[in-house]
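We read letters as residues; the fold follows as tokens. Both lines appear below.
***
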Amino acid sequence: MTEQWGGAHVFKIGTRADFKMFAILRPGENRLTVKAPNPEIRAMLIEVGAAEAHSHLPRGNWMVLRLEKLDTDDVVERLNASFQMVFQGLPKRVR
């Protein structure tokens, strides 16, 4: 975890030379940014009001989860899915 962009907690995996972000948490905002496994899941979560499209990350199925709309198990599932997707995208030598 690193602090970037005005205090956001940015979670990354990989090595210093090859790392990728998989989640962003802004303390005090009750929102968690993660990657959706596919556009359909992202669209469904946005449609039911549990997520929003991320304005600064338009590609890659990034979404902002509204934590007050989800239970803990749902948040953990979305966070794990984001981690796994990003992990699979790392070069083999880093995985």
Q: What stands out?
A: The helical segments are 39-47, 72-88. The mean pLDDT is 88.
